[in-house]
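During the no-cost extension, the postdoctoral fellow (Dr. R.K.) reprocessed legacy sequence entries with the updated structure-token encoder. One reprocessed record is reproduced below for audit purposes.
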Amino acid sequence: MTDGHANDHVELRVPATGAYLAVLRTAAAGLAARLDFTLDDIEDLRIAVDEACALLIPIADEGAQLTCRFELQDAVLKVAVSVPSTADAPPEPGSFAWTVLSALAGDVEAIRDNRQQGRTQRLRVSSTASLTSPATATMPPSRVEKIRMLAWSASARSA
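Re-encoded structure tokens follow.
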């Protein structure tokens, strides 16, 4: 990181509705840029944060706050998104949305926390900056291309 702010933490709380997802996507992009993520990595992280929130918002309690905590560590940006929820289980890892999220972020974990009053459903996402220069490396398919292939494969199976 260029300005020596390793291990910084940023936490945002917004109403658990889709209307505030743009705020969280923008924060994710800004923080990833501080870690010198490539433009592709920044866009992947923005979409991953959006997908993680979209998985949690439907199971959030009425009037709940969605908490998004960003942890900056050298070339890694960890994101934990959580909502209070009375749902019995966290989002299903086998869903298409989960597959998209995993393709974008690489490391995804769902957690149900019963320690606080009520229950909290949490998704943890970790994204790492590309360390190779696109001009000098042979680039594998982008994550967006992988998602398109997954979507095509899923639609081909259902047809």
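Residues 131-140 have pLDDT under 50 and may be disordered. The longest helix spans residues 39-56. The remaining legacy entries will be reprocessed before the final report is submitted.
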